[in-house]
Design goal:
Distance between the termini of chain A: 40 Å
Oligomer: homodimer
Strand content of chain A: under 5%
CATH architecture of the largest domain in chain A: Orthogonal Bundle
Radius of gyration of chain A: 18 Å
Largest sheet of chain A: none
Largest interface: A-B, 50 and 50 residues
């Protein structure tokens, strides 16, 4: 599920945009290696040389793209945020109803988390390493959900009184189901867990 | 909303149970001071002398209860977990229906988080400082929700097919609504946010 090298990168605070295809490939390698290094060692123990070594790159090439370990970390959080968004968007289909769109987006997130187990630790550590990135990650994820809720309301499929807080509630449900069933235990399938979330979104938990 | 000094403390790994009322008061003071110190400075910058100074106690009295900053941190996470559970239990009432019990428990959590803003940072930092405490905090919170769900199913008020994952979904909803509306922004009341969660639990988000 790795992102194609020619995908545009989000703007990196303190990072430099590559201008060539080769540059984009190198940046992608650095970000992937950083995800493994930060995920395994945590921010403080992670090192730039550990990251370039994982990426199979010379230490000096790091500085073509980033000023510091901090700026790489910020870029990585921003990259992971964007990739979660991209994964969800790729599963959306105009033929889906609004509830189906929530299922597709959540399934994409679960699959991404299963394949990139390090995402939880990295995002969670951002709360301490770079609080603005942490907040931005969740604000932007909530915004994506809220845009889908608005679409569902416009189509008359969702209740007309949904507001921003409903999006945050759905995001929290998704994040914790992911933590429990994609990271801490793997005994239940994506489909099964997506069905639990869907059943709550569809009819709540009260006996009909 | 401070806990009465005579409340039993949860067993502390590495901590020593006080045997007298005076000892319990001192331990309570230490834990409250630790919550402020860890919440404000984070685990690594926090110091034992900063904590005893906040508590108005001599540095030496710290070691009557704890071996180290680590053992105090573990005790604090365990204490916060227990207090969240106690706050919820105190609002439960046999006259409530099962949905009302969820509202009461979530409102108690929101109020607790508003009054103890440091709880999020401390629990979140536990993922890095003491991962077992972090996991235990959420496993036990999910268990409390799942016990209430079982009660609601037995009473025939909740759908009979709810399982553990539904409890994790509800917990995630509550945690993220708390993060957004008790910690990051305060413009909406506990009642208003509890109503959002209730509306999802009651009928989902689909137009009836």
């Amino acid at each position: 599920m790795s992102q194609p090298a020619d995908t545009a990168f989000p703007p990196f605070p303190g990072g430099k945009q590559p201008r060539t295809e080769r540059g984009r490939r190198s940046l992608r390698k650095l970000l992937d290696a950083a995800a493994l290094e930060f995920g395994e060692k945590g921010f403080h123990e992670a090192s730039i040389s550990g990251i370039t070594s994982r990426a199979g790159m010379a230490l000096g090439s790091f500085y073509t793209y980033f000023d510091s370990k901090d700026s790489l970390f910020r870029a990585l959080v921003s990259d992971l945020s964007a990739r979660v968004g991209t994964e969800a968007r790729e599963r959306l289909d105009p033929a889906q109803d609004a509830l189906g769109a929530e299922r597709a987006a959540f399934s994409a997130f679960l699959d991404f988390a299963r394949e990139h187990q390090e995402i939880y630790r990295i995002i969670d550590e951002a709360e301490f390493v770079d609080p603005a990135s942490f907040r931005q990650h969740y604000e932007s994820a909530a915004q994506r959900i809220n845009e889908r809720l608005k679409t569902g309301m416009k189509k008359g499929e969702f209740r007309p009184d949904l507001d921003e807080a409903h999006g945050w509630a759905i995001m929290g449900m998704n994040v914790f189901l992911g933590l429990k069933y994609a990271i801490w235990s793997e005994g239940r399938t994506t489909d099964d867990i997506a069905s639990v979330a869907q059943s709550i979104l569809k009819g709540g938990i009260v006996k009909p």
